[in-house]
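Cross-posted from the bioinformatics board.
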Amino acid sequence: MKRNTRLIAATCILGSATAWLGTAAASEPENFIKYRQTYMKALAGHTGSAAQIVRGKVDPAGHLKMHADAMAALSKDILMLFPEGSDFGETEAKEVIWEDWADFEKAASAMRSAADKFAESVDSADEAAIGERFEAVGKACKGCHKKFRQEEE
Ligand code: HEC
């Protein structure tokens, strides 16, 4: 039984690797819709885990730094997730992103700097700064979503 499961798992991995090879060259703008949604989920996952640590619910050694570094890394490249032509289909991205790109850039840059500052405060282990800067990260998420992301029903 166990062997079979392993075999199936191996076949699945092989299958997706082949699929990946097959599509690696095709980078259509609309492919970025799914990609940026999963990317945003990754960012949200790290932020949500960090929130539990910042609020003192859990204290797994070294994890706050891991999440803060991941948040900073993910925040560096938000703009490239929104190529022209990725504004239709199953997306909550609003048209105004491309109409007011300069303002969208500002929101992305505010995110980058908030995440960098949060990561620095984690490095310095300054509890008060960690709390404040984590709040600032949340504001940077909301600051962008408010104007550029469709409200959920
Ligand atoms: C510069 C703008 C911007 C910033 C900053 C930003 N987001 Fe987003 N986010 C968006 C847009 C636009 C969408 C909608 C994407 C789509 O549906 O194509 C989105 C979607 C999401 C989603 C839904 C993903 C899905 O499953 O469809 C989550 C969750 C999310 N963001 C979390 C966050 C968190 C947490 C932060 C801050 C740490 C953040 N975002 C920062 C613009 C931003």
